[in-house]
Amino acid sequence: xxxxxxxxxxxxxxxxxxxxxxxxxxxxxxxxxxxxxxxxxxxxxxxxxxxxxxxxxxxxxxxxxxxxxxxxxxxxxxxxxxxxxxxxxxxxxxxxxxxxxxxxxxxxxxxxxxxxxxxxxxxxxxxxxxxxxxxxxxxxxxxxxxxxxxxxxxxxxxxxxxxxxxxxxxxxxxxxxxxxxxxxxxxxxxxxxxxx
Length: 196
Prior knowledge:
By secondary structure, the chain is mainly alpha-helical. It folds into 2 domains: 1-56, Arc Repressor Mutant, subunit A; 59-190, Tetracycline Repressor, domain 2 (Orthogonal Bundle). Helices cover 68% and strands 0% of the residues. The protein contains 9 helices and no strands. Helix 1 (8-31) packs across helix 2, helix 5 packs across helix 8 and helix 5 (87-104) packs across helix 9 (180-190). The N and C termini lie far apart (55 Å).
């Protein structure tokens, strides 16, 4: 038997927060991120609106939890899909996964990678989840010898463009995923060579 005992109250609280986040994402898909109604959200999780503030002090607090949850979803998605060993193939595969993730969950993509909520900035704790993803992206690029910040910035811009085009013009499809090998090849040819 484990020495660690699960606090039933904390377990219930965690389960409620998970349910609130799940419903918040559904409302965001239905109405848009900026238009999530706390009244609707509370009703969907069997709470009165004032009781929602027991879990989230403000709407920005809710967005902050969604931001961290979105990055956890993205990292879990990547964890379930291992990258090839060959560096260039790994970059191609990584980019294709990001485009597919964005297309499959555009509201999550919007919160993580676009500034659509005026005044919202993630807390340091939530930003740590973003940094975990960023570290993974840098590691994938690092396998090809690319480490210069300018190259990383350009790479992220190219990926963002592919994601946005896929969402806007072929949601759920592969039109921009099919461009990934060519985009990666052009990027790698133009990248600053690592110092030797």
